[in-house]
Amino acid sequence: MGRCIQGLRHDRGLTLQQLADAAEVSVSMLSSVERGQKAPTVVVLARIADGLGVPLAELVARPEDHRLIVRRAADQDAVEEPGGWRRTVLTPVVPGVNFEWIRTTLPPGCDAGRFPAYAPGSHEFIAVESGTLRLTVADSAVDLGAGDSAYFAADVTHAYANPSDAPCTYHVAALIMRPRTRRGPARPATPGGR
User: Fold this and answer.
1) Considering Cα of 17, then 34, then 54, then 102, what sign does the dihedral take?
2) What is the four-CA torsion angle of 141, 146, 150, 155, rounded to 10 degrees?
3) φ, ψ for residue 112 (rounded to 5)?
4) Which of 37, 101, 147, 178 has CA 20 to 30 A from 5's CA?
């Protein structure tokens, strides 16, 4: 449990003091819990979970519970975006893991727009299932067809468009790093444009 709390705290870029303040517990208590020297009460654990912005169950789940996480098709988050394109997050949410696999379908002639750079250390892999995808990374554009794939360091602006008269479906495997913050828990990042 202590390693889980510490990992979530590091993922959010929080110091012991910052999390202690957000959770309304002492730094010494938080430090002892992270090192496994003290067993916290449910009240203290609930405060820590609130400070991290996660459900209490995430902190008390047994490690073996996380060895296999299944996300059924019916539970996938599909988002209809302005402009008529659709983005579906295929992967389960895994605490402390900043990875997402997303399937996107762009209708003919759709420009999904430009997306801001993510934190340094972020990466994206693209694989086109059908149609034509125009991928723009910084100021360089490339057209990808069915079966083509690409990689880019996602710490630059990037854009996705379908320049053709047929739908385009593509997949993005994204490792998105969260910038370190000084206030409160970090909000989960969702890769843009997918």
Assistant:
1) positive
2) 60
3) -75, -10
4) 101
Buried/exposed code over 79-97 (b: 16+ C-beta within 10 A; e: otherwise): eeeeeebbbbbbebeebbe
Residue (of 99, 122, 118, 95) closest to 10 by Cα position: 95
Q: What are the two backbone dihedrals, phi and then psi, of residue 137, each rounded to the nearest 5 degrees?
A: -120, 120
Point out which residues pair with 95 in neighbouring strands: none
How large is the average pLDDT for residues 176-193? 49
The DSSP output letter for 58 is H
Q: Where in the chain is the domain with CATH 2.60.120.10?
A: 73-175
The closest alpha carbon to 13, from 53, 42, 47, 41, belongs to 53
Confidence at 189, pLDDT banded by 50, 70, 90: very low
Q: What is the pLDDT of residues 24-46, one digit of tens each?
A: 999 988 988 888 777 787 788 88
CB of 85 within 8 A of CB of 166? no
What's the length of the chain?
194
* Long-range contact set of residues 67-70: C-beta below 8 Å, sequence gap at least 24: 69/94
Q: Which fold has domain 1-60?
A: 434 Repressor (Amino-terminal Domain) (1.10.260)
